[in-house]
């Protein structure tokens, strides 16, 4: 594999009379050909500014920009225009021309190509077919749903056969079901055309659906990055954890669990823990082993297994009961078995064991 996008030590500083904003600070990013790479972060983190550097819609204040092994900053305007054609872009608000038909919108970027009118017509038909909108070619944008408009925008972005597609919050204005269908479309374009996709979003859910790699941005910097599975199973930074929790809904489940009276009054021989694991270990063998080896019983309060990149990722909230020594041994065993154990402190309401229970 080779890097199709290589950004090195990128700084973008916006200066006005009254203030200076460092939107991107010392960011290096490498995206391999054929990857779907997610960049996640809250509003203002610098995501849009960073991806606009990829096609030099935004010139960096500092740093190197290499796309398809070409140093974009060294290109003359004409060569840069050519290079930009290989980088398609879609946006949250579609940016369609309302006075033109769907076919004309998709045809627009082909106007400067060498294709004949007939070839262009065929190309537009092919693109609309690719995004499942052949029957809408004579409609106007106002007659389409949000999801359909985004499909038109995708067809238009693909008109010049780009190798890279940048998606800047392209699903943010769509409902969850339509979001999924657009993400599915991006995934299939990635697989069918070998298109490299850079997806920026504030929704980890979207990243989880289709990305192989993810970078988390905060204050103009990438604070964590890696393979999706790795970042999901071992997030290091609190912000990454927060994003993941919104996508797995584990915190929501935990909130409900903590409301249960039995949990509010946890006994001193009980621990409330979150167990997370990736791969084939299912909850049952883990739980059976805990009892067989350490006489530790586990009561599952919440369980969720998701498939990320064809790999199961499990999250359980359980109470473990046993003696202090055995609970410690069981926890070590779990960690050795590559299960991430997070103990959840329940508060002050721990009921001490009676003498009899100790015995
Ligand atoms: N042209 C500009 N002039 C001045 N400041 C800018 C400009 N563009 C962006 N900024 C500032 O740079 C910072 C990063 O903005 P950017 O749009 O890249 O963030 P983002 O993560 O994409 O957020 P959003 O999703 O809200 O666009 C913000 O503080 C923003 O106000």
TrEMBL record:
Keywords: Amino-acid transport, ATP-binding, Cell membrane, Membrane, Nucleotide-binding, Translocase, Transport. SMART domains: AAA, NIL. The keyword Cell membrane applies. Residues 7-244 form the ABC transporter domain. PROSITE patterns: ABC_TRANSPORTER_1 (PS00211), ABC_TRANSPORTER_2 (PS50893). GO terms for molecular function: ATP binding. InterPro entries: AAA+_ATPase, ABC_transporter-like_ATP-bd, ABC_transporter-like_CS, ACT-like_dom_sf, MetN_ABC, MetN_ABC_transporter-like, NIL_domain, P-loop_NTPase. It holds the Pfam family NIL. This is Methionine ABC transporter ATP-binding protein. It comes from Loigolactobacillus jiayinensis. The lineage of its organism: Bacteria, Bacillati, Bacillota, Bacilli, Lactobacillales.
């Amino acid at each position: 594999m080779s890097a199709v996008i290589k950004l090195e030590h990128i700084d973008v500083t916006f200066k006005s009379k009254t203030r200076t904003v460092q939107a991107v600070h010392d960011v290096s990013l490498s995206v391999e050909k054929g990857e779907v790479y997610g960049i996640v972060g809250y509003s203002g983190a610098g995501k849009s500014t960073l991806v606009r550097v990829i096609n030099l819609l935004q010139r960096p204040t500092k740093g190197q920009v290499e796309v398809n092994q070409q140093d974009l900053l060294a290109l003359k305007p004409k060569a840069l225009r050519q290079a930009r054609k290989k980088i398609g872009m879609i946006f949250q608000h579609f940016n369609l021309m309302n006075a033109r038909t769907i076919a004309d919108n998709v045809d627009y970027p082909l106007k400067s190509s060498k294709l004949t009118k007939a070839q262009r017509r065929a190309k537009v038909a092919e693109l609309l077919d690719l995004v499942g909108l052949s029957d809408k070619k004579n409609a106007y944008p106002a007659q389409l749903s949000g999801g359909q408009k985004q499909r038109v925008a995708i067809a238009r972005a693909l008109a010049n056969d780009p190798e890279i597609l940048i998606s800047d919050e392209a699903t943010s204005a769509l409902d969850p079901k339509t979001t999924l269908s657009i993400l599915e479309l991006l995934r299939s374009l990635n697989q069918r055309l070998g298109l490299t996709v850079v997806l920026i979003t504030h929704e980890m859910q979207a990243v989880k659906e289709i990305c192989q790699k993810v970078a988390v941005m905060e204050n103009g910097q990438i604070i964590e990055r890696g393979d999706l599975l790795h970042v999901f199973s071992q997030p290091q930074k609190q912000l990454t954890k927060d994003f993941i929790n919104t996508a797995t809904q584990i915190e929501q489940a935990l909130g409900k669990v903590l409301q249960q009276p039995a949990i509010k009054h946890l006994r001193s021989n009980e621990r409330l823990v979150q167990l997370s694991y990736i791969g084939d270990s299912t909850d049952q063998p883990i739980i059976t082993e805990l009892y067989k080896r350490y006489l530790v019983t586990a009561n599952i309060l919440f369980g969720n297994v998701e498939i990320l990149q064809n790999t199961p990722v499990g999250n359980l909230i359980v109470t473990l009961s046993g003696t202090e020594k055995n609970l410690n041994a069981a926890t070590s065993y779990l960690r050795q078995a590559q299960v991430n154990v997070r103990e959840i402190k329940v508060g002050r309401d721990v009921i001490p064991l009676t003498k009899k229970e100790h015995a």
